[in-house]
Amino acid sequence: MIDIHSIEFYVLALFVAFALVGLIFGRSDRSAARSHLAAFDVSADVAERDDNDHWVRLSGRPDGTVLIERQGLMLRPGETVNLVATLIDDKATLVEKPGVASSSGNAEPAVARVVVDWMPAQRMHIRYESELTGEWGLLTFTNRETAVRQCQLRH
User: Fold this and answer.
1) Cα separation of 149 and 155, whole Å?
2) Which range of residues forms the domain containing residue 87?
3) What is the mean pLDDT of the chain?
4) 36, 40, 126, 146: which could join 81 in a potential S-S bond, CB 3.0 to 4.6 Å?
5) Is 150 strand, coil or helix?
6) How many angstroms separate the first and last alpha carbons of the chain?
7) Three-state SS for 47?
8) pTM of the full predicted structure?
9) Which residues pair with 68 in a beta bridge?
10) Using an 8 Å Cβ cutoff, are 141 and 128 in contact?
C-alpha cells in the first residue's frame, strides 16, 4: 500500500492527472495521412553559385498546382531524384529521395523541378528533408497564384 504522504503517491497522482488531461484535450479529429510520389525533372545547373547556396522554393501557379524547385544538388549524369510527400491536416513532410543511381561520371551541380497538384489551398507547415545531402529546412506556404516561399537548407 502506498502512503498518501509519500513522494511516490504524488508522482503517481500527477501522472494520472496528466493522462486524464491528455485524454480530455487530445486531438481526435486528425485526418488520415495522404502520401504522394513525384519524380523531379533534373537539369544541369549552369549558373555560377556559392557552394552553400542550397535551397528549396515553392511557387503557386494559376491552375492551383505548385512548382517545387531544388537547388544545390550534386548529381552524376543519368541520376534521378524523387519527392515523397506525406500530408496530415495542415502539416506536410517532403522528403527528397534518390532515384536511379549512376556510378559513371563526375557529380555536377544540378537543379531539380517538379509540378505537383496535391498541395491544398491552405496554409501548410512544411518540413523538407533530403536523403541525398542530409539537409533539411522548415517553412510555411499557402498555395495561391502569387505565393512564393524559399527556404535555405541546413545540415
Assistant:
1) 20
2) 34-152
3) 90
4) 40
5) strand
6) 52
7) coil
8) 0.79
9) 58, 114
10) no
- Give percent above pLDDT 70 in the chain: 94
d(CA 109, CA 86) in angstroms, rounded, equals 27
Is 1 contained in some domain?
no
Helical (H) or strand (E) element with 116 = strand 108-116
Q: What is the CATH number of the domain that holds 50?
A: 2.60.40
The three three-digit cell numbers of residue 103, written as one number: 556510378
* Opening angle at CA 66, ends 119 and 129, nearest 5: 75
Give domain status of residue 27, yes or no. Answer: no
CA angle 85, 88, 94 (to 5 degrees): 20
Domains held by the chain: number: 1
The answer to whether position 132 is within a domain reads yes
pLDDT digits (tens, 9 = 90+) for 87-144: 999 999 999 999 888 778 899 999 999 999 999 999 999 999 999 999 999 999 999 9
In a domain, residue 12? The reply is no
3-class DSSP state of 102: coil
